[in-house]
Amino acid sequence: MPADTNSGTRSRAGFFARLKERLLGPEGDTDAGTTAQPAASPATDPVVAAGTATVVPAPSARKPSRFRLGAALDWLAGRKFDEQTAEELEMHLLAADVSLETAADIVRRVRKKAGGRNVVTIDDARQVLREALVEILEPRAKPLVIPAAPRPFVILMVGVNGSGKTTTIGKLARRLKDDGFRVMLAAGDTFRAAAIEQLQVWGERNDVPVVAQQAGADPAAVIYDAFEAARARGIDVLLADTAGRLQNKAHLMQELQKVVRVMRRLDPTAPHETMIVLDASLGQNAVAQAKQFHEAIGLTGITMTKLDAGGKGGVLLTLAGELKVPVRFIGIGEQAADMDVFDAAEFAAALTGTSLAGTSPGGTTTAA
Questions:
Q1: For the chain (length 368 residues), average pLDDT per consecutive 10?
Q2: Which residues have CB under 8 Å from 253's CB, separation 6+?
């Protein structure tokens, strides 16, 4: 099946709506349609002179958004983008796991966009922020495409323990099989017996073969054997698990580099995808992991997990701004349907509690 026609390159209906609910609460938990009047200043909020329209209250007086970025620009409604608004936005960005460098870039983009806009409602303000985030995320939103050759197409999965790597392999195997590919798994995480067993469970659940050896075996040898077996059986995609290597341990990175060298004895172009699985709840530690893995072996894809377990999402903005590696998938739960293709516009809308159609979660039409 041609890769560019399969469902694996597009997100499935309803996924980002569920992400938005988990970040913001039911219906976004926002009052995004509220209209603001520009007459008052932050110093006089929420009190205004008698006879004037009610202004948008200060953020502390509003119903709080469950996710910090949701209300980051609410002060902009009815006002000009000034230094106080810039500081407020930067504070929210930093609290949402965005790095200082990327936060400054976002503030710059928002300042430019807000300068020529009539920002009347809170939703207008959030749409400005959404557009700025899309500009940063869009260049990294590239789905995983399995070409017609080579065979097997080898995906080397890397990441530290606890990131959800083995579970991600199982979900990805299910997705690829549903798209008509013949899939095999390689249990290359031989340092933990539980990891081998977990991958075998996923293999049984998805009805895909698993190549494994005993705990403590040479990971490079396991993956080499799996490569040969996949080639002999006409497998389309080989998903190779690896140990949860701590990114600050040089000898473990060297072991991973050995796996790559051994694979290239069979195919000089392998691995054809090197995908890191990152835990969103780790914040800037996840960014550090990605940068060090990228330096050691060269990453070609990112899957971000656990956006439902305390991950604020800002870490993806930092990765998009500072690391030129495509984001393939994001995950919000344990079930196979809880992982989907990363979509920059949908993700930015979920972060800001807005919609792509230019309407608020409650249906209020916003300014164009």
A1: 49 73 57 41 37 40 48 71 86 89 95 80 87 96 95 96 90 95 96 88 96 93 97 98 72 87 96 95 91 92 84 86 95 86 93 67 36
A2: 245, 247, 292, 293, 296, 297
